[in-house]
Amino acid sequence: MEIKIISEETLEEALDLIWSVFLEFEGPEYTEEGINEFKKTIDFNSILEKVKANQVILWGCFLEGTLAGVLGIRDKTHICLLFVRKELHKQGIAKGLFQKMKEICEIESPAAKITVNSSPYAVQIYRRLGFSATDKEQTVNGIRFTPMEYFE
């Protein structure tokens, strides 16, 4: 398992992975508004601009050179994307990506809390990683999420 920053060359592949996993696991639970809103958030040009401005960092987990999962970080302490290929679920990829994020957070923002707005599908995954809900599920622009925070 190799975890490294997603380059401009692999950005499109990463966004395709995110979109396909979203459609399979989240899309069926979302309204058309929510699906369209999510699609806007992962628009190539929009993400590329945020990456170049260091507003978002995307980490990829590669298995034998193949992209297996992606974790996006906003503001150095907020997980904005975490998606793993369906056939590779429950193999420690999300955990590996999260461990890498924790390492970076401890260096750059040692006292900061790690947060996420978890999709309904991922709440249990984040709980296993050590997150707890800080509020009830909410819906904004069709996007359903539960605010969560990591407690070590």
UniProtKB/TrEMBL annotation:
Protein name (Swiss-Prot/TrEMBL): GNAT family N-acetyltransferase
A Pfam family it matches: Acetyltransf_10
Xref: PANTHER family: ACETYLTRANSFERASE, ACETYLTRANSFERASE (GNAT) FAMILY PROTEIN
N-acetyltransferase domain: residues covered: 1-152
Gene3D superfamilies for this protein: 3.40.630.30
Coiled-coil zones: none
InterPro entries: Acyl_CoA_acyltransferase (IPR016181), GNAT_dom (IPR000182), N-acetyltrans/Recomb-assoc (IPR052564)
One MF term in the entry's GO annotations: acyltransferase activity, transferring groups other than amino-acyl groups
PROSITE patterns: GNAT
